[in-house]
Amino acid sequence: MLEFGASWCEHCRAAQPLVSAAMAKFPGVRFIWVEDGKGRPLGRSFGVKLWPTLVFLKDGREVERLVRPADARLIEGALGKIA
């Protein structure tokens, strides 16, 4: 799972407890946090427009995407698809 965001982003900080709780249930899933922003092309290559954006990949393909998730159950459901 990739999480695109910024350390100063209010929405990113609010989502962190949800992401952490969901990730704890899927210890086998690799998590990569990507600092995004101006001049950082990786976020643009994934079409990221709002933070945080969670991109769930399986075998190199995007399976699901959540933008500004507000419910840990949605994150858990997406993690279940790639676990």
What topology emerges from the helices and strands here?
Layout: E1 2-5, H1 10-24, E2 32-35, H2 41-45, E3 53-58, E4 61-67, H3 72-82
Parallel strand pairs: 1-2
Antiparallel strand pairs: 1-3, 3-4
Helix pairs in contact: 1-3
Percentage of helical residues? 25-40%
Q: Could you give the count of β-strands?
A: 4
N- and C-termini, Cα separation? 10 Å
Radius of gyration computed on alpha carbons: 12 Å
State the helix count.
3
Description:
The chain is of the alpha+beta class and 83 residues long. The chain has helices at 10-24, 41-45, 72-82, and strands at residues 2-5, 32-35, 53-58, 61-67. It has a 4-stranded mixed β-sheet, covered by helices on one side. A hairpin with a 2-residue loop joins strand 3 (53-58) and strand 4. It is built from 3 helices and 4 strands; from the N terminus they run E-H-E-H-E-E-H. 37% of the residues lie in helices and 25% in strands. The model has no long low-confidence stretch (mean pLDDT 97).
Notable traits:
four-stranded mixed β-sheet; 37% helix; alpha+beta; 3 helices; single chain; 83 residues
